[in-house]
Batch of 4 targets.
Target 1
Amino acid sequence: MLIRLDVLRGFSGAEKLTYSENVRKCVANITTPHAALHTLVGCPAVIFLRIGDVIAAAKQNMQGLLSTVDFQTRLDEAESFLRDLDLDMIEYPTPHPEWRQLAEAFRHASLLRILRWPDTFVIPCEDPRIRPSVSAILDCCANVSMDSPFFKRLLFPLFLAATETSERHQIHYASLCIENIRRSTGFQHAAMMEVLEGVWEERRLKTRGWTNVPWMEFTCSEKVCQNGSPTLNITNRTAGRCDEEKIPQPPNGSFKSSPWKRVLKNDIVNGDA
């Protein structure tokens, strides 16, 4: 469903949002059981529409059409709305309790993105505003059996939770969940894994001295070699800039071959807790 992909792209950069509010509402209002957004994705329409509006506001802010003060007001209002949303009042596609877990996961995935605006570098992932949403998403995953057909719908919230933590046990659990989804669906999600590994590596090594390591900075990365030295080419999209930085890789290896990646891979393969 293109409109869903449009909003997901908007998570990585508001400038990528293409469809209008009217189109998002039209798609969200589809109630045909096998075509409804809620059924296909697991995200309730009310959450989908709210985060879509926030991304649209972020795009307006980047274009200079919405002041940062007004944008912050929109962010605060959306955060309050999502936190106060009574998920038990939502009409779910079927009586299965897993829908409630999916709704909770998408609520906190949206909150994580909202909290990262207007400057994704400011708040560290250890901040008390970030950590509860990461834990909530992982709890939702723990409440859904990995063998359940619902589990694969948790992939996007799982991805966001995994990028927003430096806790080793949370990274390990998220890795196990993601690997299960990759194995059960047959899709390897190579680009997603590259982003995750890049974020985890930078959080561990702190080569840039950033307060936070925004995963969005790795979505348009390209590994290149210059003068025999591996670098990571990052285009900064956080504030609508298009400047590029050549960031040195760790001296003992690239993101692809790092010991950190090998530890994660071994944990997943061996199933060590």
Note: The CA atoms of residues 169 and 179 lie 15 Å apart.
Target 2
Amino acid sequence: MLFRKPKAASLRTCLIHKVPARQYAENKNAFYTTHAEFVASASSLERIPHLQGLPEVVVTGRANCGKSSLFNAVLGRRSLLNTSQKAGRTRTLNFYHVGTEPPKLVLVDAPGYGARGRPEWGKLFDGYLETRKELKRVFILFNAKHPLNTFDTMMLTHLSEILVSQRERFTLQAVITKVDDISLDEVGGAVKRIREGIREVTHLCLPPIVTSAKMQPPFGIEEVRKNIGQACGLKL
């Protein structure tokens, strides 16, 4: 029984003692869960849709970092976005309306980066960041099981450079995912390593939000929702 996975209640108690208190208030937010729908996919800059100037946030991360699971948890859905164990499933920019009609914001799912990323995905993502005036925040995801690697530091550096070149037109924030996949004894150290790794690369990244999309109820998701709303200038 040495390798038995800890119960969710025990993990939640552990997390509550290791992350800021505001991150574990999990009240289901009707704004996000009442209405969310897929709008369009874009495989090139020319195919990026015009969405009435609604504020947008985009999510990126190393391949298989849990983007789809986080999206589904934020939107209170099980399968609005397909989840996969296979890295590199997301290959286009995917746009989703959020909020009761008329929609109030747009969530954008970007292809993952890293060893299984592709140059054309990076070109598409960079073009979006540099030209999309509606963009308000980039969320970059880090899997709690792994410290930052070369691809992560390169992406953080790259995003910071774009942020400066764009005169900080949008903001950058980290999200730590999959904390339920590591043992109770490792949670504090894992979160600390990622936080310190981010600080060593850039001072432009907002403090990371610690999350688990699999826990019931999900952990840290309400904090993600709150930060999305704040970035988009919405009072929810």
Note: The longest strand covers residues 135-143.
Target 3
Amino acid sequence: MASKAIDMRKAAAKFFTASHFAVAGASSNPQKFGHRIFAWYLPRDLSAIPLNPMTPSISVRGKDYDTVASPSKVSDPKHTSLSVITPPPVTAKLLQEAKEAGILAVWLQPGSFTDKELEYAIENWPDAAVGGFADGTVGGEGWCVLVDGDASIEASKSLNVEAPASNGVNRPKRQVPRNLRGIHSSRTDRCSAGHRVSKRPSKHEPVVGRKARVKKHVLDRMGKTENIKLRQILANLEG
């Protein structure tokens, strides 16, 4: 099946139109990305739900949060987006459960998927699945909440999507706290879920984007060496 161009920026913006955000892989361990990503939501006034079937609660920043075991246990799935920080085999099952539950949107962290899981997400959430190296991310490992989240929150305000009501009350428009803006914008931030991250671009990345990244890499290398092979590669890219 031929892949179509994906507007990942719009998908990321739609992700943040949700009223709630379930974090699959949320953990009490500060060294784990499930902990870091769950903690990222808290100061941004986002309703975060830890999803972890292995423990009844997690502790983040000195506070305990009750967990849910699966997407099917989320109380308001149609108004809930899902951050995924799990190994690819777990992600595959998780996405199936999320689809059956009616989850609004999904964001696959680097390291949480292979092409198979990303394709499934894009097919089942055609305008609300985020992941991979499609144009728009400022991170070096692909679309990541820690790196791209704040910009996506800002972008969500311009979508012609009415914010869903929560318990009969409309949530106010979200503002990224001034002291948090850009705090995770470094391209050197690691965003993988602790699993092996493939350096091979996803086939969902536009060809133009792939060539640009390869060309930049070659130019960076050429700044340090006069390697003839690199010059030949560059000539082929420009040809």
Note: The radius of gyration is 19 Å.
Target 4
Amino acid sequence: MDLPILQRLSPPGVTVLVLFLALSSQWLFHFIDPGPIPREHAYMFDGLVACLLICYWRTCFTDPGKIPKDWHEKTQDSAYGPQKDPSKVAAGQPNRWCRRCEAYKPPRSHHCKTCKRCIQKMDHHCVWTSNCISHITIPHFVRFLFYAVVSMTFLEYFLYLRVSILWSQKSLPSYLGPSVYRLAHLFVLCAVNSLILFALTLLLGRTIWSLSVNTWTIEGWEIERHHTLLRRARVLGGYLEGPDDVKVQIQHQEFPWDVGICRNICQGMGSGNPLAWFWPFASSPSVASGLSFEHNEIDDPSKPWPPPDPDRLFKKVERQPILGDGFTKSWDIDEFKRRQAADISRYTDADDEYVVRRRPFRERLEAVSSQDRERNHYDYDEAAELDDDEYGSDSDQPRARGDWSEDANGEGEEAWRNKEGERLADFGVDEVADFYDEDDVPLAELIRRRKQN
């Protein structure tokens, strides 16, 4: 895994920060009233810090999982889900093809741009752990956040006692109190610990919510995307246009993986034993357990998730036929190579993949002629207002003719943002591979599947 230098420094940097807060504070307490913390409290605090570091290191260095190529065949084996009700396992979910891995990916999997592979139940690629938070690493991540918040709350209490005593003695001469350097040390500890504790408390609350409803950040993005498509379709007659003017009906679908708070937590933590949820050395969930998931059966289990999205349908690059004799340009080989490179760069992304990005929905609305508005009786102004929250009133997306962006470096509909302003790339996902991956199965794979049938 080729990680940026800052991500490589994250694990040692966070470790040094934890040790600074935990050890230097206990040393400082010897010189500030009411003195060092009691021994039993010190043992408890140091134990919490040790649990914090163990869970953090496991979050950093546990492999987020490698999906076997024949995973869809192994899911039929009872060893991959002996306790699951076969009628409730989403075996009927259509398999999605990853063009980067050149393989099918299981439900809830996404291609990580940093790890360069598909990750099971990917939440995000965390820069602070330099690893993917996935089906395999989520239990360690939750335990790390829990022990971090608890241990830092302890430290916040110890710091508060000493700051309150100093404040009560503020009228005394300065030579009777701690030195300026120790006061500065105390101030740094209070500021750093308070800020980090506040941020981690919010993150822990959000993570526990995601765990209880079995909906992680990328899936929350998908749910918001689906609701946006429903609003668009409601204004535009129930259908949205896909590639080549294909009409796609948009129907409401419920998120299929929320099976109840208790089962959601057991699935996310990899165990039904509550004691194991807090044990720093608890085993990681197996790769096999993340190949299929229990379906809540609110909708037909054969319906795909994410729901059909006309903007995600893959469109091949259409080459225009050559007019004339085809030799209207210079025959010089260097000029030919330059023209060839310029032509390829129009449709090639950073991974040398031919991709035609679909223009943002708002731009396509603005490009509709007045005749189309009168003929179809669509209220495009109302539809445009629905998209104001996504792109703003003045979209800064690249302009191009038609439904497809001609600029390979520009951003298309894959850059859609949710209400919090987040796009797939913000979670570490390879946007092009994860957004434009529908129906892009190579011919050789289709032939192989036909032979198996």
Note: The first helix runs from residue 5 to 28.
